[in-house]
Please model this.
Amino acid sequence: MSDILFLTLRTFSKTGGIEKVCRIISKAISVNSNSGGRKVEMISMYDAGPDSINNPYFDEKFFRGFEKQKLKFVLFAALRGRKFHTVLLSHINLLPAGWLIKMLNPKTRLVLFTHGIE
Model:
């Protein structure tokens, strides 16, 4: 496993199917990174930074929330993502950020999760 950046729309501020899946994924990559000394970060478009405080899934010091500031999220994700080997996209609406990351670093591996009927 390599360094991973996990991009989400929302994970901690609401409870729904996609949010539950994102929490489980964040826990899994966090546990794997701790045992392997790998870098893992998580960026959320809609969550606020305080939404992640005291969550049992992901270390809050490696989480950043953008509180619905879409442009800032996309730009930050693109600049940050070019430094990671793998970028996980939790929703198809995150593809523009993924595309920018791929433009900045074509070697970055993108993984897109699809849910339900989308």
